[in-house]
Amino acid sequence: xFRKAFDALSAPVATxxxxxxxxxWWLWALGLAVAASRTTNPLLLGLIVGVxxxxxxxxxxxxxxxxxxxxxxxxxxxxVALRVLFSVFLGxxxxxxxxxxxxxxxxxxxxAQGVRIGGRVTAEQxxxxxxDGAKLATLLICVGAANALANPARLLKSLPGALYExxxxxxxxxxxxxxxxADVVRLRTARRLRGRxxxxxxxxxxxxxxxxxxxxxxxxxxxxxxxxxxxxxxxHVPAAVRRTTNVLTLGGLLGICAGSYGLxxxxxxxxxxxxLGAGLLAAVAGLRLGGRRTVRTRYRPDRWGARSWLVAGSGxxxxxxxxxxxxxxxEALHPGVVPLAAPELPLLPxxxxxxxLVPAFVAPVPEENP
Length: 370
Hints:
The protein has helices at 2-9, 22-37, 42-59, 68-90, 123-149, 152-158, 164-193, 201-228, 239-264, 269-290, 306-328, 330-333, 347-354, 359-362; strands at 99-103, 119-122. By secondary structure, the protein is mostly helical. InterPro entries: ABC/ECF_trnsptr_transmembrane.
């Protein structure tokens, strides 16, 4: 009996029938991103990055879009370095007493008071810049995890009919860069096997033309297939339905924006969550009505099963628990830099973040990584 229960809970090998819904991965990643937005503690931010990286390593495939996670990690490191660089050269409002070095200061006119170029650089302002940059870098890495795990084509299939045209543009944009990188790797490997150089300006120019040609051929093929499938056809709907759709969609999006701002703000969780829920309901109703104009069918639509609920729910749980943690441990989630002190790892928020590891155990295992 216990063995049957364990087999039912263990993750199966991914197939076309049991593959996880792409929307579940995005909800999981957005939950981690919301959690990252609620803290500047580098230990908690590093834990979020570790959770996202572990899940990506355990459940990503070898598809082109699955290789984007490393690029987002590098982008996050670049953001941290850029934030520190701006703080060093443009100053910071954070006072500090631990002087690191002094840069030549550029004199500015009176109308530019409050702006400084150069001058004193303290350890406190550099540490504050590191905390602030790490927060933004973690948000980017969470988005990179969703890009690496969610199949863009299957995500497009699950979009409402009203967002189909915009979704096609987004999917094409998301898949262009990974495919271009794959083409560059393939051409460089071919040149290396032929004994030709792969570095230098001349090699880059010789590789660039085939890459652009391949991108153009893919664009033409995609356009032809979309035209053959009747892309862009619309059905006639009454004017009253169109006006109601516009009002619901616009009002819902405004509610989502206001609610999201409330959740991301320091003291807006009280009104942010109800406003976000009302905005989502209005937006969903508007999208349902707007979908009547799009004439298309879905072949073998993806199903939202129990494992999708577990994956999406784990991300939502991490976000809710971290929002709750701001009420009972604000100092631990936002460590100060004046005076200088080492950040501490709060136990309960750290355990809350570990809930995000659920997809690494319940999501179907890719066939390439059984």
